[in-house]
Amino acid sequence: MAHQLPCDDEHPYRATYQYHRCHFLGACGRNRIGSIRPCRDLVSGYLYARLRFQFGLTGCYCTAQQHYSETGKTFFQGLFFLLGLAVFLCLFSKLFSPIILSRLITSAEVYHAVIDYLDGRIWGLLFSFPFLALRSFLVGITRTKALNVAALTAVLVNIPGNWLLIFHWNMGITGAAIASSFAEACSLAVLAIHALRKMDKRFYGLSWSFDKAVLFHVCRVSVWSMFHSFIGVAPWFLFFVAIEHLGELQLAVANILRSISTLFFVIVNSFAATTGSLVSNLIGADEKGQVFPLCSRVIRLGYAIGFPLIALALVFHQPVVSVYTDNPAIVQTAWLPFVVMLLNYVFALPGYVYMNAVTGTGATRTAFIFQTTTIAAYLLYLWGLSHWDVPLAVYWTVEYLFVIGLGVQSFTYLKYKHY
């Protein structure tokens, strides 16, 4: 599984500076720490969509590895598409986010904080999307050392940037957004300098060119995975919109717990992504019978790593939550939702492993359908809860429904479908 590690370099670093951003905003008040979550999930939808596009783009590079001069052409088609998508999403968010969010968020203070964050954060897409084009190119040609340098650069810029902009220049939530965008610009600069100075441009065909056929091929391979990722983040955005009526205290608790859960999501996502790659290799080697044994081994390994961390988090729950805030009301309110959130790992790991196994078989459209039907059930359950006076811990059980639904559908497909 070691071959997958370079492809997952972004997740631990992203989790690190998300933690520091949440910690810094926690010192600014619970309305700030609570309001950052909905807009962060909205931006995450864009970011995960381009990440899934990168997976498809990387696959195109891999198929072209025997013709290295063609990889440059593939890179530029991906770059053109991602740049166009970034510009579209920036303009769409700038024009329509205020209209949409004003109808979804009832608290004026939370609404203005969300808009302030988006105004500074959305322009980071102009850097992060081209970064992914370069990243997928380097992964596809198996030259990944620069990726860790770029990701580390983003952390080293983002953490002091958050401190300076939030506290020293008193920019609050807008400062957090600008720091993230600037960090992404710096990581793009690192990869761009590496490509310009270290890459053999003639060998890899790195010259500006537009090829409509290649562009359509790249889009055809990647589009379902992009939809898959975008709608995967949408429920979290709607979750925070749904609990907004519970008040700023509950919203702040939910944001902190979501940030803590990022650690466990990194573990789940790493194992799930590895499963997808290994299943693809098994299918290519005509060893379909090894798919279920592989998934079982991955799940056991994931439990062996995750369960001790869950036990430690349960024992030291107060210090863990207190890292993000010194507000005693938030720490006390967070206990029961904290337990519900942690125990979801039991179901999330097999759910995502089996779903990525389906993707690994090449059935990206099927995986998209499974996620769509699960999200429909998720939203129906969330809508039902909104009609009752239930605490945050009950709302969090919707995550159980989501991952169990994904897991059951994916397991059934793998067991009975000829792939």
What does this protein look like?
The protein has 419 residues and is mostly helical. It contains 17 helices and no strands. 44% of the residues are buried. Mean pLDDT is 79; it is low at 1-9 and 61-65.
List descriptors:
single chain; 419 residues; mainly alpha; 17 helices
**Percent range of helical residues:** over 70%
Low-confidence stretches: 1-9, 61-65
End-to-end separation in angstroms reads 23 Å
| Strand count | 0
Overall pLDDT level: 79
Report the order of strands and helices.
HHHHHHHHHHHHHHHHH
Coarse shape:
globular
**Rg on CA atoms, Å:** 21 Å
Q: Could you tell me the strand content as a percent range? A: under 5%
Estimated structural class: mainly alpha
Continuous helix count: 17
Largest sheet: none
Which SSEs are present, and which pair or pack?
Elements: H1 10-26, H2 30-63, H3 69-104, H4 108-121, H5 125-140, H6 145-168, H7 172-198, H8 212-243, H9 248-284, H10 291-315, H11 317-322, H12 328-333, H13 335-343, H14 345-360, H15 364-385, H16 392-396, H17 398-416
